Amino acid sequence: MEQLAKKYDAVVIGAGPAGTAAASAIKGKGQKVALVEEDLWGGTCPNRGCDPKKILYTAVEAKKKAELLTNNGLNSQIKLDWPALMANKRAYTKEISPATKKGMENSQIQTYVGHAEFVADTTLKVGEQLLEADNFVIATGQRPGLLDIPGREFLKTSTDFLDLDDMPADVTIIGGGYVAFELAGIAVSAGAKVTVLVHNSRPLKAFPQKLVTTLVEQLSNQGVKFVFDQNVTEVESIKKGYRIYGENDYQQDTDMVFAAVGRQPNVDYLGLTQAGVEYSKQGVIVDRHLRSTAAHIYAVGDAAASPIPKLTPVAGIEAKYVAAQIAGRDDEITYPLVPTVVFSLPKLAQVGMTESQAQKDSARYQVKVVDMTDWITYKRQHETKPLVQLIIDKMSGLVVGGACLSMEADEMINYLTVLIGEEYSAKKVKHILWSYPTTASDLQYIY
């Protein structure tokens, strides 16, 4: 028998970075709020995404930097201890979910565990409990996508990869985006034979062609095999692993197959139609106020069909913005510059205007690529062809976009984010006194 509905000012669905930030911000404005989660509290990023990936990558990065210094000051052979590395990762992630839930409860946020589904536009059902609210925030994140092919049940995902007890000797990754490149770098560093199957000839389309081509070359030199323009049509279980079939009689045997073919918003089982909320394959359709087609229901983070990169810092911005909207604020959302990083070997990062955007108005924007191989930062580390690309507005002389390919790209892109956002001219950058020699001091040479 269903219980009487419990009433709240707002109910947040999903307790990942976006949902917990939204619930905390709404509570901070004095409203009565409930938070619902059916899986791991804390969401994908800390449990099975960016944080555990970075823990694995930290060891991979150390190994790569040591290899670059082999016979240049280091002679030891470094090998990844995958079980120990995985134990380190699990020691971190095992506390995330219970600690997140406890933190919400300590903040006087009512928590519910179970699947949430709208039964009316102001009523949510969680198990046998009904929750009514004036406003709702959908922050249910995304899940890894799978190919709709025969044998799809044999495909593993990034979630499986980040929790492998042992690294298989032979790994095949289907995809050409962030996840495919990151998993490939980790797997090859762990000693696996790695094949990446890309359905077209242009992976990482959002990034500059020259930098992507160079990254592919460097991963290939480390042992990653790329097969372009190949669509996988079937995966079959065989005695020793799996057999992959593709177009034009392509066939390959492997120990394990990972699908890195994008992510799917977790919005298709929420009963959104009953609430008058429209959604697509990209998530809940929202306006510039992050409101859905039902004005009292908002969507944030990975669950929203917005054009902004689906990153944890962006989710936090959107969550706080929605809390302010619920409290009475009515301006459209604006976003700061959003830097993105592919944690591969080396790293690839980008911020601001992209190469493809600049090429649409080549009369105004200049694309400048600088090879940093002979700079002290990269000479001392013996990096192979580190590159930086700048997009320069010819009218103002300001840099409006940047991309980097190097083992230091994650650090470099943060500096560029600040300098672009604050509209620093080349002259002003050259007058900043940086600590030398550092990645920051290199900025004076690229501007």
Walk me through this protein's architecture.
The protein is an alpha/beta fold and 447 residues long. Helix content is 30%, strand content 26%. The strands form six sheets. Strands 1, 2, 3, 4, 5, 6 and 18 form a seven-stranded mixed β-sheet that branches. α8 (209-221) links the parallel β9 and β10 (224-227). α1 (17-28) packs parallel to α9 and α3 (50-68) runs antiparallel to α4. The chain starts with 5 loop residues before the first strand and ends with a helix. The model has no long low-confidence stretch (mean pLDDT 95).
List keywords for this structure.
globular, 447 residues, 7-stranded mixed β-sheet, 26% strand, 30% helix, 14 helices, alpha/beta, 5-stranded antiparallel β-sheet
Quick recap:
This protein is α/β, with parallel strands linked by helices and 447 residues long.
Our count of helices gives 14
How big is the Rg?
Answer: 24 Å
Structural class: alpha/beta
Task: Please state the overall shape, judged from the principal axes of the Cα atoms.
Answer: globular
Which parts are unreliable, with pLDDT below 50 for 5 consecutive residues or more?
Answer: none
Biggest sheet overview: 7 strands, mixed
Mean pLDDT: 95
Task: State the end-to-end distance.
Answer: 68 Å
Beta fraction of the residues? 25-35%
Q: Can you lay out the helices and strands and say which pair or pack?
A:
Layout: E1 6-13, H1 17-28, E2 33-37, H2 44-48, H3 50-68, H4 82-93, H5 96-106, E3 110-113, E4 116-120, E5 123-126, E6 129-138, E7 142-144, H6 158-161, E8 170-174, H7 178-189, E9 193-197, H8 209-221, E10 224-227, E11 232-238, E12 241-246, E13 251-254, E14 256-259, E15 263-265, E16 279-280, E17 283-284, E18 297-299, H9 312-326, E19 340-342, E20 347-352, H10 355-359, E21 365-371, H11 376-381, E22 387-393, E23 399-406, H12 409-421, H13 426-430, H14 443-446
Parallel strand pairs: 1-2, 1-6, 2-3, 6-18, 8-9, 8-14, 9-10
Antiparallel strand pairs: 4-5, 5-6, 7-15, 11-12, 12-13, 16-17, 19-20, 20-23, 21-22, 22-23
Helix pairs in contact: 1-9, 3-4
